[in-house]
Amino acid sequence: MSAPVSERVAARPAASTGTALPAGATAAPGGVLEPSSASAGPSGGPAGRGGPAAAGRRARPGLALAVIAGCTATIRLDDPVTNTALPGIRAGLGPSAPTASWVVGAYLLAFGGLLLLGGRAGDVLGRRRVFVAGVYVFTAAAVVRAFVPGGELLIAVRAAQGAGAAFATANGFALLLATFADGPARRRAIAVCTAVGAAATAGGLLLAGAAPTPAGSWRWVLLLDVPVGLAVALLAPRVPAGSRRAPGRLDGLGAVLSVVGAAALVYGLWRAAERPWGDAPVAGPVAAGVVLLAAFAGVQRRTERPIVRLRLFRDRDRALALASVLVLPGALVGAYVGLGPFFQQGHGWSAPAAAVALLPLPVAMAGAAGLAVHVERAVGAKRVMVLGALALVVENLWLAFLEPAADYASAVLPSLVLLGAGTAFCAVPATVLATSGLRPDELGSAGGVLGALQVLGGSLGVALLATAASGYTVPADAMGAGFTAGAAVAGAGLLLALALRPRR
Questions:
Q1: What angle do CA 265, 385, 501 make, to 5 degrees?
Q2: Average pLDDT taken over every residue of the chain
Q3: Can you tell me the distance from the alpha carbon of 378 to that of 93, in angstroms, rounded to the nearest whole number?
Q4: Is the pLDDT of residue 37 over 60?
């Protein structure tokens, strides 16, 4: 693998069978929650301030799903948009251009560091209010970054954009859980968000291959995802407010420990994609992050109103499902990072052709998300996740031994389809298990934890792939080592799935 791995990632979701209802809510047919007039106001606060119009807005689960899925797509699409513009940013800003890693890194640190706090902020201030604010900040920063005059300001804007993404992501998912009760409706909603996210990845691949980025064009490239962001921003205030706001204030010490600890861990893993694990810029932040997050867990046990409710991890199946969410991204990194250069160097394909060749993976994932819901209903989450994890293990191993002259249609295409389907078969039931049986006051924690685990999992996957490939000078050998690491990560996911309790 020729360029640094971190610069080639276009990277970038015992469970109860009961129905968790927000306070004052009733379950409509199909599992959609309909808050009563006595429950929550339009900002997630006390009733009496919204009136009939607000009640009408709360009764639109389809609109809520569309807005939350659109937010997911916008945030997912932003990564390839930024990566596509990086060469033009370097050329256009000249000596003031920041390094490619910090344009990505400033966003990643703010995003990963604020997800846990973002979920709790929604509990206290109102989930819809914080979600809307996050969408506004994210979209405004997406516009401003296209017109910044210098690299330092671009980094600051990217950090603000990451903060907006964190608050929107954590509270968007909490609102999804508050709108759709445990059962078929929530399963379908999770599948829709998974499919939309995969479709956004497919769009990002096309963009990365097709958009030119000379010095004069990078600014308009950065505006490509703004129309979707503006549409989401306009509709976000119409999302149902969910349950009433939690009383109390944010835990100051817990907030500091969660933000600094998560950011330090993400930073260390991010640098591990470029440096050995023993180097101080890697080992120091990783160790500090682990220590700070351990201290954070201790504080959460003692505080009356924690940022993360540790009860989330006490159920065995939920804890296993959350661990699966953490390891899953690592099983896909090899395909997105390694196969593009393989197509270009080994087959002489152009960048657009290489990007199109990767499309079957996200397309298969989008298509299999809905199928995973039906199969899970028939055979149970454990069997679906085992099947998906087996597909990830087998296909990573197959691609690890891919010959440079291998035919795409017979040797690569089937593997990409099975990787996408396997990912959907792992992600959808894992997310369903992780969010089943939650109390209303745990939805914010769940949204923040799921988002943080996905970010950490992606960073860890890139770091492991870079470490596995670092000892090889031949690109094909480096790619094989990366896929072998992906197979090992998928194997860990398989063990987690096998440890689940069988249930229907």
A1: 95
A2: 83
A3: 56
A4: no
First to last CA, the chain: 44
Instruction: Determine contact, residues 342/402, Cβ cutoff 8 Å.
Output: yes
Whether residue 53 is predicted with pLDDT greater than 70 in this model: the reply is no
33 strand-pairing partners = 27
Which tokens hold the place of 285? Answer: 């932040």
What pLDDT, in 10s, does the model give residues 229-258? Answer: 899 989 988 887 766 666 667 788 889 999
The amino acid present at 180, given as its one-letter code, is: F
What torsion do the CA atoms of 462, 463, 467, 472 make, to the nearest 10 degrees? 30
Q: Are 482 and 333 in contact (CB under 8 A)?
A: yes
More confident residue, 17 or 107: 107
Closest to 175 (Cα-Cα) out of 303, 323, 44: 44
pLDDT more than 90, % of the chain: 50
The whole-number average pLDDT for the span 365-392 is: 94
Mean pLDDT, range 128-139, rounded to an integer:
94
Instruction: At 312, list the tokens.
Output: 């989330």
Q: Is the pLDDT of residue 168 over 90?
A: yes
DSSP track, 225-243: THHHHHHHHHHGGGS---S
- Alpha-carbon distance of 192 to 36, in angstroms, equals 26
Q: Are 449 and 326 in contact (CB under 8 A)?
A: no
Helix %, strand %, coil % for the chain, to 5? 75, 0, 25
Q: What is the pTM of this model?
A: 0.83
> For position 356, what pLDDT does the model report?
87
Q: Are 97 and 151 in contact (CB under 8 A)?
A: yes
Q: Answer whether 378's CB lies under 8 Å from 434's CB.
A: no
What's the sign of the alpha-carbon dihedral 293, 271, 196, 57?
positive
> How far apart, in whole angstroms, are the C-alpha atoms of residue 342 and residue 409?
15
Q: Within 10 Å of residue 37's Cβ, how many Cβ atoms?
A: 14
271: nearest Cα among 139, 141, 108, 133: 108
